[in-house]
TrEMBL record:
InterPro entries linked to this entry: Homeodomain-like_sf, HTH-type_TetR-like_transc_reg, HTH_TetR, Tet_transcr_reg_TetR-rel_C_sf
Keywords: DNA-binding
An example Gene Ontology molecular-function term: transcription cis-regulatory region binding
Name of the protein described by the UniProt record: TetR family transcriptional regulator
DNA-binding region as annotated in the record: 31-50
SUPFAM superfamilies assigned: Homeodomain-like (SSF46689), Tetracyclin repressor-like, C-terminal domain (SSF48498)
Pfam families: TetR_N
Source superkingdom: Bacteria
Keyword Plastid among record annotations: no
Coiled-coil stretches noted in the UniProt entry, renumbered to this chain: none
């Protein structure tokens, strides 16, 4: 293998180890030494290839986010002739099928990534802005078709992303039998939320 291939392989093994360890024992409880032992990578290679535990966390959530966005785009393409509510709900369902594919992924993506450092928070803001922009464009197209009220959707889409994040966090934290939350239940709530925020509001009749 070339040097680039060896580096890519080590990065992949370290990212896999991060998913396992951050997703089970948590980011703050996972040492670099433990990550390297799990990935079978030397600490010297870790610092040369990754640089820091923070950078490894960003690499991991970025990998999950990239795969989730691909699924989201596929859902939008598949539901091109459907109403806006259906398109957005199915897009989130596709996104969550990756980020919440198991408890480890959901814990890393929605819980462990919160409040780690300014760099990780900047990644989270960028990720939210990206999805917000996509949803806003979809809503604006729907408004042009008369399917949604014509207004600024920026704050609403950010609120929608915040609601999904909060529900996903509750799904991770739910440990009592009977209180478990499923992706389908999250998507049902998204549907109610979107119907209220995107639908055309009836004109107020003068009294």
């Amino acid at each position: 293998m070339s040097r680039q291939q060896r580096v890519a392989l080590r990065r992949s093994r370290l990212t896999d180890a991060a998913l396992e360890l951050f997703g089970t024992q948590g980011y703050s409880s996972t040492s670099i030494e433990r990550l390297c032992a799990t990935a079978n990578v030397s600490t010297r290679s870790f610092y040369e290839d990754i640089g820091s535990r923070e950078a490894l966390l960003i690499a991991l959530v970025d990998r999950l986010n990239t795969a989730a966005l691909q699924r989201l785009d596929e859902a939008l393409a598949r539901t091109g002739d459907q109403p806006l509510v259906v398109r957005v709900v199915e897009s989130f369902r596709a996104f969550l099928s990756v980020t919440c594919r198991d408890r480890k992924a959901a814990r890393v993506f929605f819980v462990e990534v919160v409040g780690v450092s300014p760099a990780v928070e900047e990644w989270r803001r960028g990720q939210r802005r990206s999805i917000s922009g996509l949803l806003t464009r979809e809503a604006q197209r729907a408004a042009e078709r008369g399917e949604a009220e014509s207004r600024s959707f920026h704050l609403f889409t950010l609120a929608l992303i915040g609601a999904v994040t909060s529900l996903a966090q509750e799904m991770v934290h739910a440990t009592v039998p009977g209180e478990a939350i499923s992706v389908d239940e999250i998507c049902d709530e998204i549907g109610y939320f979107i119907h209220s925020g995107f639908s055309v509001r009836p004109a107020v009749q003068p009294t």
